[in-house]
TrEMBL record:
Pfam family, one: polyprenyl_synt
Source species: Auraticoccus monumenti
InterPro entries per record: Isoprenoid_synthase_dom_sf, Polyprenyl_synt, Polyprenyl_synt_CS
Cofactor: Mg(2+)
Protein name in the entry: Geranylgeranyl diphosphate synthase, type I
Top-rank taxon, per record: Bacteria
Parts of the chain that traverse the membrane: none
Keyword Lipid metabolism: no
Amino acid sequence: MVNVPEPGFVWTTDVAHGFVADPEDPLSAGFRRAVDAVLTDFLDRQGYELEQVGPELEPVLELARTFVGGGKRLRPAFCLWGHAAAGGDPDDRQVLAAAASLDLLHVSALVHDDLMDGSDTRRGVPAAHRQLEARHRASGWRGSPAALGQAGAVLLGDLLLMWSAEMLDVALQHFGSDQAGLARLVAHQMRTEVASGQFLDVTASFSPLDGDPQAAVDRAHRVVEYKAARYTVTRPLELGAMLHGVPERPLRRALEAYGSHVGRAFQFRDDELGVFGDEAVTGKPAGDDLREGKQTLLLAETRARLTGPALARLDVLVGDPGLDADGVQQARGLIESSGARARVDALIEEHGERGLAALDEGDLHPAGRTALERLAHAALRRDH
């Protein structure tokens, strides 16, 4: 028998009452608070269901709240303003709820990503698997703390993925069947693409380093398109637009081109921050991507440019989990001197410009266009 929430417990997007979307500031504090409120309300409902299972689930909800409670809310913003670009109302509370569900999907991916990468921190706090390991040690439980951390993180990520789908489905009940059906198709495609892109990324990390350097560069571009660009920008835009109805072909092409270019530029900047970012700002240890040996475009471009002892030294440094501050500086120096960082910076600018130019190719609603212009600049010119 399905548990029924206590009397008076009703999940409603009225928790975001008073929010007014502002195309001049699409990532405003008010927007982020509204997304936070909708997500908190949803997690409260899920918390009641977990309580019925037993107190053992308390750390699961606690971790979900911790990691869902942060972030830039870029994916919900692209969804909301994709809806507005197609002529929809950006103040529609059900659109806001559908958009917010994308951040549950994002946190699911982060939990799994941190586990696969062996990351110690996320958003300035210990990663989910590390927190579960610490709980094991503090409780004096049997077995391996690492095993509990790994298993718990897999299940937490899976649960967040299912909650994302549930939250979207609840929101879609308020739309017409055609709109809801189209939005679900986009969501299904987005989930498949991000998982496929993640697998491409994993295989890249284990592939031999003595292959064709240009093939590695090409693969890095492919990883970024599927793991980042479509998942972060293109599909959220498309999902939002579908909630208003099927966009005209020129508008859809414009949103797809904008999404691909802006999404790529966003990820290239993210990869650069993973090597050169300030830990106090990014919330992750400086040079963590180097220790994890992530085969990003930045690293692929570096390897394509280095030869001899310099390349051999880079391969010793990258992927060393014990890489110290001096090693991080050495690797940074090799990347800089190779010209790879300058190349990636140029690509960020190029894709940003092409993304903005794509907005001229479709008949976007003025408010939506303004917001997408602002979002492009926010995604590209960031330090965290």
